[in-house]
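Need tokens for this chain, all 379 residues.
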Amino acid sequence: MLLEQTCWSVASGWQPVTSGRLATQAQLALAFGSRAALETPGVLDAVRRAYPTAYIAGCSTAGEIAGTHVFDDSVVVTAIAFRNTPLTCASVEVTASSLSEEAGAQLAERLANDDLRHVLVFSDGLHVNGSRFIRGLTERLPGHVTVTGGLAADGARFEETKVLVNGTPRTDVIVGIGLRGESIRVGYGSVGGWDPFGPERIVTRARGNVLYELDGRSALGLYRRYLGEQARDLPAAGLLFPLSLRKNRESRGVVRTILSVCDAEDSLTFAGDIAEGSYAQLMRANFDRLIEGAAGAARISAGAICGRSTELALLISCVGRKMVLKQRVEEEVEGVRDVVGPGAILAGFYSYGEISPFTSSATCELHNQTMTVTTLSEA
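Here are the structure tokens for all 379 residues:
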């Protein structure tokens, strides 16, 4: 595949990140940017003019990745010209969180193709139940088709997210890009790096992705006690203390992060389902393990593309990791570069949720507070 990358900001305008000019050769342009940048007059028009025959997909973010740099308030565009990989692109609206599973099923039907191999998905980050959407999508796709992607973000504001449907920013929508044919090779991996603390508790009251009680007591009250004065900054402050969930004591935990709080209902809304009877434990940051987790995800992903060199690495990490790592945030991106090598193009964003299997033998799940790496190579 041929790739080129450009970046826009108010201060610098459009600047090349890599050399090349694909223009009408590009079939796909991935655009990730802050909500304000994506809505700046003329910015997306310029992307359409630059790649007139490409499908333009992407979303709003909490930070943009280009190479080993992490930007804010920018738009990073990665244009791709596949040599022998046809695309199928589709989108679905999600009018209510309760319809997320149905939306996943609809997207699968619209992407259906005999030679479908992998689906990249970008979803509204606030009004979609990510775990139910993934369930609906993967249950309708053939077993050999893999899925990765992420939930759009809005910095630490949690007000509104945007998804690009062929270059048009929209809310309450999910877009999918189907990669087809035998030439494409896709690897993926997801690793966290957070440390559990405090006792493991049982979810005693929850409905869908809304959590009310742990061990018969208010979950929101528990968060307020742990956060102290920081509790006034919820839901953003909750990103520093995600929740690890296990279906049973033998299963591997997935991490959930808070999207919103409701004082009137004494509840917390998460990006994915919180099942009653599951085991929950608070987590906190371990700087070195977060950075090593990114490199670990890259090793898993790069090792799954059958010995081929990575041409494009799509990095989707969580806004919570960015808030914790602060000035060290580029270290996790540099860790990925060390694994995939200098020849790969790195692109991606900081999200409200990451979509990927843990490894090649695992099922696709919604994650929070992880670094997921999707590696692409074409014969």
